[in-house]
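Students often ask why we bother encoding 3D structure as a string. The short answer is that it lets us treat folding as translation between two languages. Here is a chain of 45 residues written in the first language.
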Amino acid sequence: MLVANLKPVKLRGIESNGMILAASDDDTLTLITPMEEIKSGAEVS
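And here it is in the second language, the structure alphabet:
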């Protein structure tokens, strides 16, 4: 599993401070996404 902070960038005039959570095995790379809405700052466990 990889957690990576992206460099800040302006999107439509608003600064985005994105983060990617991804996992991979031998031949597959996938982004990890929540199953439902959750508050910003929630812990990943």
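Translate back mentally: The first strand starts at residue 2 and ends at 5. Keep this in mind for the problem set.
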